[in-house]
Amino acid sequence: MATNPPETKSQAESLVPQFQLERVLNQDQNGRRISLLGAISSQPAVITLERAAFPTDSTLVTQLLSSLTNTTNLGANDIYRWYMADRRANFAPSSETGSVSPVLPQMHDLKLNLIYPCTPKHVQKYSSQRVRMVTETPDVYSRHVRPYMSSQRAAGRLDWVFNILEGRTEQEDVIARCDWDSPSNSGFLILPDLNWDRKTVQGMHLLALVQRRDIWSLRDLKKKHIPWLRAVRNQVIKTATTKVFPAGQVEPDELKCYVHYQPTYYHFHIHVVHVMLEAGTTQSVGKAFGLANIISQLESMAGDDDETGMDGVDLTYFLGEENELWKKCFGRMKSGDEVDLNVK
Q1: What are the tens digits of pLDDT across the range 285-333?
Q2: Among 225, 269, 271, 274, which one carries the catalytic annotation?
Q3: CA 55: distance to chain centroid?
Q4: Which pLDDT value is given to residue 275?
Q5: Taking the domains of the chain in order of start, what are their residue ranges?
Q6: Of 86, 159, 138, 79, nearest to 312 (Cα)?
Q7: What is the DSSP letter of 39?
Q8: What does the pLDDT look like over 243-260, one tens digit per residue?
Q9: What CATH architecture does domain 129-335 belong to?
Q10: Residue 260's CB: how many other CB atoms inside 10 A?
Q11: Which of 13, 59, 217, 293 shows the greatest Cβ crowding within 10 Å of its Cβ?
Q12: 9-113 CATH choice from 3.20.20.140, 3.40.50.2300, 3.30.200.40, 3.50.50.60
């Protein structure tokens, strides 16, 4: 039986320019990958375009930074800023005319987040590091982690949050305020997360910042908070499905609501994302705790004491080895050393 000869490299490369688009099949990975249906020589074909990995060589990274153009600021708050930017088109001489023409058209294809001036904690957060799973008991929480949280709140690291809540910054980005003037201090506001480009439906990522300041993390949630948590969750879903995109474009069962532990900052906030948003580290087990599951866990806790809560359960989560809680607490516990969160 005759077989076709192996395809050469040049033959394979010649196929892509022949692709004729019929329609877009899918867009995923927060808009960084797109699948297309089309045809090549009248035969059906599917092509997937994905943005290539960024270079790590310092010379190439410098060239990449110097190629940025049309940088447009989307917002700024304290030391945090975010932008959209283009990469300047590459140019090459035309084989027919000898003139210089762009190889690729200019595209609005990069989202930039700038933290300036950054702190050592920011450097730590964004650095590659080994990760460890830890179990935080109620005793470890009360003796070590809770005091650590208090010290972090006292260091002025929540200024950007209070700027938003008190109306000094990002007010044009606020999508909704709910129960804002309630005497029970139960209000919250919803705005885009800085990691969302604010356009891609399946990349939608919202943030609900609560008005009250007595809840630092999910550890502070108690049975008495169940009605409030349910109301917040319902209102967040209603807002996300009616005020972000045209009604019907996003439905309630296309949303995930979760909180982080450990969170990046100790002021209670809820993440709301589209279920099709590719689940990276921040949505993974050991980082994200589903809000509906937290409510259910609180409801199932024994007893009628409204003060019973998440401070009385073991929590298992991951920490990077550069995280202070690993280096000064859990890592020292593992090696049999005394915990000291004041160690330099």
Answers
A1: 899 999 999 999 999 999 889 999 999 999 999 999 989 999 999 999 9
A2: 269
A3: 22
A4: 93
A5: 9-113, 129-335
A6: 138
A7: E
A8: 999 989 999 999 999 999
A9: 2-Layer Sandwich (3.30)
A10: 18
A11: 217
A12: 3.30.200.40
